[in-house]
Amino acid sequence: QVQLVESRGGLVQAGGPLRLSCVVCGSIFRINVMAWYPQAPGKQRELVARITSDGSTNYKDSVKGRFTISRDNAKNTVYLQTNSLKPEDTAVYYCNRDPPWRDSWGQGTQVTVSS
Known about the structure:
46% strand, 115 residues, mainly beta, single chain
């Protein structure tokens, strides 16, 4: 069973930064494509950033240039550096594989951006 443990998020003012991390337990982390999936209130989770095993990245247009995904295979950890945050970035942020391990969603971490 894979376990995903996201770090604490927080409340941040618009324009500010926040760094999220996620530790993955129970999988051969380094071979998996990892991603971040925020879920805004009343909406479905959506993939906004993904990173392959060799470090190639892809981003949803809405976060391109503001978010940076990275990984440390030695620590089984994936990160999301968020900059220039906007109120519409407010969501519970989840990490998972791409495609997701269906039964292994973590608790997520709340990110709230105030205007």
